[in-house]
Amino acid sequence: MNRRALSLLSLMFLAIMISLYVYSLWRVEHMKESQTSIRRIKLIPRNPEPFIMKNWKELTKAYIRFVFSFDLTGEYLPLIRLDKSDPDTVSFDLPSYVGDFRACEGSGEAINCMAAVLSGTLVGINMSGYNGYDWVSMCKSWFSKEDGIFLNNKKGQSGGSFWYDIYPNILIFSLAYYYPGIASSWNSTLYKVAESFYEASHIIYTQYYDSDFDFTAFDFRRMVPVNNGRWVEPDAAAGMAWLEYMAYLKWGDPRFLEAAKCDMQFLQERKINPFYEVLLPFGAYIAARMNAEFGTDYDVQKLLNWCFDGEIPLGPRPGWGVIIDKWGDYEVNGLVGSLTDGGGYAFAMNTFDMALPLVPLTRYNTSFAKDIGKWLLNAANNARLFYPDSIPETHQSSSSWRYCNVIAYEGLRYRWNGKSPYAMGDPVLHGWGATDLGLYGSSHVGVFGGIINLTNDEKILQIDLLKTDIYHGSAYPTYLYYNPYDVEKSVKIEVGPEPVDIYCAVTHKFLARNTTGTGVFTLPPDSAAVIVLVPAGGRVEHLNDKMLVNGVIVDYGFES
């Protein structure tokens, strides 16, 4: 071959390489352009350091084995006890903290006890027969006939705090979804709950619309909103919208859909961040889901920004959001709590529970997949700091109680006793508990345990988008993956023996066809994929902006 021919071949090779490079840049940028940003997520580093990811599924199983065991011996053990204070039924109690001085028969909080039952369920444990007891059915003992809803305390009453009155009902509706056989016997009770919240929404919407939901609570006995003059919890609208929408999906009663829309309208029109405790993320999820399923146009980005921002000085609880910082030698990026209390105070319960609605949100609006994936990677890595085995003993308040490492501290402070960070809580400080190890937060660990699976790359998680997407319609296995690296990565996925096509709802493309066993797909740097495993060779059709395979929605935002 002569010199001129070699030169032409070299030029052709160079042109091909340049074209491939330009295409790869376009491909990455195209995927990035399809994403909508959550402004505070831009501040979170892509790669948590050090990277020490707990196996959340196994940790959850170990937690359930420990707290539901009657056979443990030692200081403050066993933690579980049966509650026979009601002659008509047997229930159970868990203390809110290890060594809780307030614990007595019948004192268990629903937000702790129901959450523990749900956590076991999310990691595949049948809690309706675990260790010979039906823990699921026992959860009905938190229903108050006088209030018409489930309460946090068995002998309590509504009207003290919105989130304490709403969250037990979110937990019980979730359990009812996972145990339909048991829940069928609760049908009238659950329907009564939905009606109670429908009436509360209707009263607030029709009689107090100008209030902008700025109340502390709702008294379900007198059917009036309550303002205690000290704080308000306007993100109650988000929790009530979630409950009413789930009730609509369960029974099809249009009143419940009407109530959900009214509650969401408050959030849509509101100008000031309403985030108070744990409920606002449920509103963001409902906004995305109703937009996808009913064609509404709620501002999902606004709600998500509110969940993360911790706006100061606005809102009912200024500084409440997602922490992005380094405390001492430890990154705490992604943990949820106060950005301002003593320089920062993160909480285990709030961190776990943020993921419950925000992870399935990405199924209905994949444009937030990258930012939610990036947040969860950081949160799941750094949440280890709530646990005694992940932080020096000199940086925790209750290191002397070491019967296990499966119970987390209630929270993590920026600084305490000259140490940063410092794992602690309220009981020891205020004198109503012997330790700050909180079942109150640890019982929610199954949210991480249920949705997070490991892959062939330690930093690329497989995040199950269906696990907490309760009362969803027919769906194929759906997972979120986020690549935090600066280079493209190959990710393995177990698809089973039946052939499937691997579809990405972020790029709206099939990545592989007729795959069995272990499939492989590639993720560009700093990008996310929402992977759906659909039957191989299935019938593809398009309906408005949705793509379906064999009549099942696969992509809610298909771009034709």
Give the helix/strand layout.
Blueprint: H1 3-33, H2 56-67, E1 81-83, E2 91-93, H3 110-122, H4 135-138, E3 143-144, E4 149-150, H5 162-178, H6 180-183, H7 187-207, E5 217-219, E6 224-226, H8 236-251, H9 254-269, H10 280-294, H11 300-309, E7 320-322, E8 326-327, E9 330-331, E10 336-338, E11 345-347, H12 348-364, H13 369-382, E12 411-413, E13 422-424, H14 427-430, H15 439-442, H16 446-451, E14 452-453, E15 462-464, E16 478-483, E17 489-504, E18 509-523, E19 527-535, E20 540-543, E21 546-549, E22 552-555
Antiparallel strand pairs: 1-2, 3-4, 5-6, 7-10, 8-9, 10-11, 11-12, 12-13, 14-15, 15-16, 16-19, 17-18, 17-19, 20-21, 21-22
Q: What would the keywords be for this entry?
A:
560 residues, alpha+beta, Immunoglobulin-like, 5-stranded antiparallel β-sheet, globular
